[in-house]
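Entry 14. Ran structure prediction on the chain below.
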Amino acid sequence: MTTQAAALSHLKVLDLSRVLAGPWCTQMLADLGADVIKVERPGAGDDTRHWGPPFLKDADGNDTDQATYFTACNRNKRAITLDMARPEGQALILQMARNSDVLVENFKVGGLKQYGLDYESLKAVNPRLIYCSVTGFGQTGPYAERAGYDLMIQAMSGLMSITGHADGQPGGGPMRMGVALIDVLTGIYACSAILAAIEARHQTGQGQHIDMALLDVGMAVLANQAAGFLNTGKVPQRQGNTHPSLAPYQTFETADGQMLLAVGNDGQFARFCEAAGQAEWAQDDRFRTNTLRVKHREVLIPLMQTVTRTRSTAQWITLLEDKAVPCGPINNMAQAFADEQVQARGLVIKQPVEQVNQVQAAIENIATVASPLRLQATPPVLRRAPPSLGEHTDEVLAELGLNAAEVATLRSRGVI
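Output, C-alpha cells:
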C-alpha cells in the first residue's frame, strides 16, 4: 500500500520567530509535514531555551541547562544559528527566503527592514513568498511600535477582567490564564491565515503579507462575552467558575472534593434532577428553563450543593456518564495525563534525541503533547525531537551549496 505524503510536505518554511506565538504556528506547519528551518542567534538561541525551571533532565535525572519551555513549540524543525546583523548572515537568509514558501517573523514593526529582510525586499526576489509578521499590536495604529506580551494583552483585552473570582470573594480580582493562551491562539490563527494564503496563491501565483497582532486575537477570542457587551453595552464581570448565560454550569463540591457539572440545556438538567433524586426541580417554576435557572441561580446552586456533597466525585461521574449529563473531575496535570482517554488517544509522545550537541548529549528523549490534528489520510508526521541549538546548521548550509571550507570560515567569523 502506498503511503501518502504528509499534507504540507511540499512546503518550505523559514522561521525567524522566537518565544511562543510564532513558534507555535510553525510547529503546526512542521507537524503537518512542512520543512521548517528555525533560525536562532549564535550562542544564545531562542529565549525559551533558558526559561526555566523546569529544565530537561539528563539520563541520571539531574537538571540540564535546557528549559522544557522550548520543547513545547519547536519539534519537527531543523535548527540553524545565524547572525542576521552581519551581511553574510543577511545574504544567507535572503538565499533561503528565495526558495521558501513561507516566512514567519516576530520582530518589532520595521525591525527587519534595516537588514533588507522586510516583506517588500523579499517579495522582490520571491513574489510567491507568504510573509507572516507576528507583533503585539499589529503593523498599524498608535501602538504599532510597542512591544507586546501575552500577559499584557490578557490585561488590555479585558480577558483578565472576566477571569477569576468576583471582587469581595476569597481570592477575588483579575486573574491571568494558566498558560500564555493569547500567544497560543495567535499561533493557531497565524497558521490558519498562512494556509488561506497558500490556497489564494494557487489562484494568483502570488504570495502576500500577513499582519498578525496579539491584541487583535485577544479581542477576537472574547467570543460570547464580547458579543454580549457589543450588543447590550453591559460590561461582563468576573464570576469564578460559573457561566454568565448557563446554569448550572460550574464546579460543585462533592463528598471527597469537587466536580465539574456543565448543563447546557433543559433536557440535561431534567436528567440530572432525576438521577439525583430531585425530579421535582425540573418542574419548579424557578428552574424549568435555562433562563429561569440563570435568574434564580442564587437559590438553585445551594440546593444542588447540598445534594452533590452526598456522593464522591467518582460516584457522580458513574451515575451521570450514561445519562448524557456532562460531568467530570477537576484534574491536576498528573491526573490529566494519566486519564485512560488521554492515554488511549496517544496524546503523549516521546521522541528520541538523535543528533545533539555537547549540552544535550545526556538527554535520551523529549516528551511533548501530540498534535490534535487527526487527518485520516495525511496525519501529522513526527520526524524530529525539538532540536538542540544549531543542530542542523551544517546540513542546511550544505543544501544551499556551501562547502565545508566555506561553512568553517563562517563559523570562525561568528556568523553561524
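Residues 355-359 have pLDDT under 50 and may be disordered. Will compare against last week's run tomorrow.
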